[in-house]
Amino acid sequence: MLKTVEMMRMPFVNSRMEELVHELDDRLGRSLNTFVVTANTEIIMHARNDRAYFDNLNAANLVIPDGIGIVIGSKIIGTPIEERLTGFDLMIRLFHLCTEKGYSVYFLGAEPEVIEETVDKVNNRFPSLKVAGYHHGYFDPEDPSVVKEIQSAEPDVILVGLGVPRQEQWIAQHRELFPKGLFIGVGGSFDVLAGKVKRAPVFWQKLNLEWLYRLIQRPSRWKRMTVLPLFLIKAIIARILRKKF
Ligand code: UDP
After folding, report:
1. 193 CA distance to ligand 1 centroid (A)?
2. Cα-Cα-Cα-Cα dihedral sign, residues 219, 224, 226, 228
3. Which of 42, 109, 135, 237 has the most neighbouring CB atoms within 10 Å?
């Protein structure tokens, strides 16, 4: 069992990437059905105001601290998370793991040409990786054909890049239809893999300014990002009042 730190009634994994990958490898080896949430402050604050979405997240097996806001929040309340674990880095680690162990990966999400480009790039970079299939993310969620297609591909890992909150809703509502599968919400990671969106250079990542880099690339995100300072203010207040955060 991985250690966790609780914030806003969510248990965030507090481990190193190595340990997380080891845990997922173990679950894959046992053909378990697993749901991993890659959480940032946007996700957590959204869940505060949307009970059904909170329940979706609560059904996950693991919630990993993807955003720097989560890591800073944990420090403020005095139970520091040792490492930020991003969905993007985890996805790359899983490509290596799946290549090594022969597990297959299904890609669900992004625009049609983006997902094709993503799979092309992944095939080039990981020629031995088994791609179970892929589908773009602009389908009618009521249409059962996408689920049927994924079921018949019997993938070990299902990467779901439908954006927040759609991807967690989709996983929570459909994972029961699969006897096995490691389901992970990966946000805009396919856009990065396809080269449509650039991930912040390492220098920015090291300074914990990835959020600012993304904001500069897509200024329309600013409204969604106002939840980050709000989350931190709440953590500070909880610390001062010695209240549960
Ligand atoms: N997306 C999708 N279906 C939708 C809406 C979005 O597949 O109905 C994809 C979108 O193309 C992008 C990803 O979800 O690849 C993330 O979208 P966005 O940047 O809006 O969300 P966030 O970064 O907040 O997860």
Report:
1. 14
2. negative
3. 109
State the pLDDT at residue 223.
Answer: 77
Q: How far apart are CA 69 and CA 41, in angstroms?
A: 6
- Coil vs helix vs strand at 131: strand
| CA-to-CA dists, residue 227 to 23, 44, 105, 204, 239, angstroms | 31, 9, 33, 21, 18
CA 147/CA 181 separation, integer angstroms:
13
pLDDT digits (tens, 9 = 90+) for 123-146: 999 999 999 999 999 999 889 999
- Sign of the Cα torsion 167, 172, 177, 180 reads positive
- Give me the sheet containing 4-7, strands edge to edge: 4-7, 10-13, 62-65, 33-39, 181-185, 157-161, 104-109, 130-135
Residues with CB under 6 A from ligand 1: 109-111, 137-138, 161-164, 166, 187-188, 190-191
